[in-house]
Amino acid sequence: MEKNIESTRQLKVAKEIQKEMAEIIRSKGMAAFGGALVSVSGVKISPDLSVAKIYISVFPSEKAEAVMTALDENNRALRGELGTKVGKQLRIVPEIAFYLDSSLDYVEHIEELLKK
Q1: Each residue's pLDDT tens digit, 101-111
Q2: Measured distance CA(20)–CA(63) in Å, rounded
Q3: SS3 (DSSP) at 34
Q4: Distance from C-alpha of 50 to C-alpha of 30, rounded to nearest angstrom
């Protein structure tokens, strides 16, 4: 029975990647994402630090698909920018994959149900 416990190193690297990727996305501005507010809600990193799953929340959620497409199309450039920021701390810059964090939609859905 394998427990999914992230090491201290994984958590530190994930937090650093989250901070830097949030800064990279913020620096692009809302115009780059069709006026949507894009934030990095979390990062999970593989035990060998080679793959980072970056969770993105988008407001308004109608623009989520367009934002995710833009992020995927610019994956290499974003990873390159991330590399310049965390290259000193990490031997290899992890592969990055973007995932939509739908927890905001879930919260809205629950609020709507509660209003009924």
Answers
A1: 977 667 777 88
A2: 23
A3: coil
A4: 29
Residue 71, Cα to own-chain centre: how many angstroms?
10
**Residue corresponding to tokens 């290259």:** 87
CA distance 6 to 116: 40
Between CA 57 and CA 59 the distance in angstroms is: 7
The DSSP code sequence of 69-83 is: HHHHHTHHHHHHHHH
- Spatial separation of the C-alpha atoms in residues 79 and 8, rounded to whole Å: 23
| Cis ω for the linkage preceding 94 (within 30 of 0) | no
The pTM is what?
0.84
Query: Long-range contacts made by residues 7-10, C-beta under 8 angstroms, separation at least 24?
Result: 7/47, 9/49, 10/45, 10/47, 10/49
Q: In terms of Cα–Cα distance, which of 48, 96, 46, 52 is closest to 71?
A: 96
Strand partners, 40: 56
Q: Are 42 and 88 in contact (CB under 8 A)?
A: no
